[in-house]
Amino acid sequence: MAPLLDVCQLTVELPTPSGWVRPVNDVSFQLAPGETLGLVGESGCGKTMLSLALMGLLPPGARRAGEAWLAARNAGGAGRLNVVALGDRELVALRGREIGMVFQEPMTALNPVLRIGVQVEEAIRAHLPHSGRGGSAPGPGEIGRRALQALERAAVPEPQLRARQFPHQLSGGLRQRAMIAMALAADPQILIADEPTTALDVTVQKQILELLARLRRELGLGLLFITHDLGVVAQVADRLAVMYAGRIVEEGPVVEVLRRPRHPYTEGLLRASPQLRRRKLEPIAGVVPRLDALPPGCAFEPRCPYRRAECAAAVPELRLAAPEHRARCILVEPVVEEVTR
């Protein structure tokens, strides 16, 4: 099956007083219909910047390179569009209708002075301007009906009541559901969920994860799930990509990566994560390097307990560690030999 999204060597550069930095550096991955790809890593590793690059929402002055091929429904005869090469007007037409996004912190992402229903209607009006009968712009009644349907699909209880309320009148879980309703209002093929369960209690977190899983199955969505919580990603993802200092350092089936991590950074994340079996948590030594002062070789080399002299010579390539499982580490070589014999 052809992927919905095929990202090839995507790089994002940002201007800083000390020069250009790359929060996203040579990133490649694919996302299939109905699949969930979990993207994990520490704060500042480039997860959110990657999602903003795909949405065309980078800060002023940013530069993009590489390719991000989207199997867009409205691509005409081409069938695929390179999101990186599109201009602002083309991205506006694409955003929402092909790729939707649930942003971090719904209390700051939602407009505090507009009612929830108005904000969902605004998303419909912006992304589906000619979806009425005969290709005309939908009327107020039809937009209101679609907004209530979007809230119902996002499992918002009493949608008519909630549509009349302001964001501060809703709980954190309901605000997140409203954000999901807005993101899916125009029926996109791909949903990017950026830390959708942050600051929610465990019960509400479970409800949001179950909602996203149900919507993915029912709508056939490709879901890019961004988080720093390995426990959460284990519940929802089919495949897992681990980012560090702007690069993907390990990628593969989620069960394989979590049970048999092949990159020392992934191994360190697992040792630092709480588990059901009681044990002492082991933090990763050192700190994440600054993007304007990355080491010449492996970015994790200064913190790696297994580092060798050759680790500092050049950035390792992603190497096959097992079927569909790759890691950016020179220690993968013996495993490749074992697999290929």
Overall description:
The protein is of the alpha/beta class and 341 residues long. It has 12 helices and 12 strands. The protein has helices spanning 47-55, 88-94, 106-109, 116-127, 140-153, 159-163, 172-184, 202-219, 230-236, 254-259, 264-271, 333-340; strands at 5-16, 19-31, 36-40, 63-70, 81-82, 99-102, 190-194, 222-227, 239-244, 247-253, 319-322, 325-327. The chain has an 8-stranded mixed beta sheet with strand order 6-7-8-3-9-10-12-11, sandwiched between helices. The longest helix has 18 residues, at 202-219. The chain starts with a strand and ends with a helix.
Blueprint of the fold:
Blueprint: E1 5-16, E2 19-31, E3 36-40, H1 47-55, E4 63-70, E5 81-82, H2 88-94, E6 99-102, H3 106-109, H4 116-127, H5 140-153, H6 159-163, H7 172-184, E7 190-194, H8 202-219, E8 222-227, H9 230-236, E9 239-244, E10 247-253, H10 254-259, H11 264-271, E11 319-322, E12 325-327, H12 333-340
Parallel strand pairs: 3-8, 3-9, 6-7, 7-8
Antiparallel strand pairs: 1-2, 1-4, 4-5, 9-10, 10-12, 11-12
Helix pairs in contact: 4-5, 4-7, 5-7
Short description:
With 341 residues, the chain is of the alpha/beta class. The protein has helices at residues 47-55, 88-94, 106-109, 116-127, 140-153, 159-163, 172-184, 202-219, 230-236, 254-259, 264-271, 333-340, and strands at 5-16, 19-31, 36-40, 63-70, 81-82, 99-102, 190-194, 222-227, 239-244, 247-253, 319-322, 325-327.
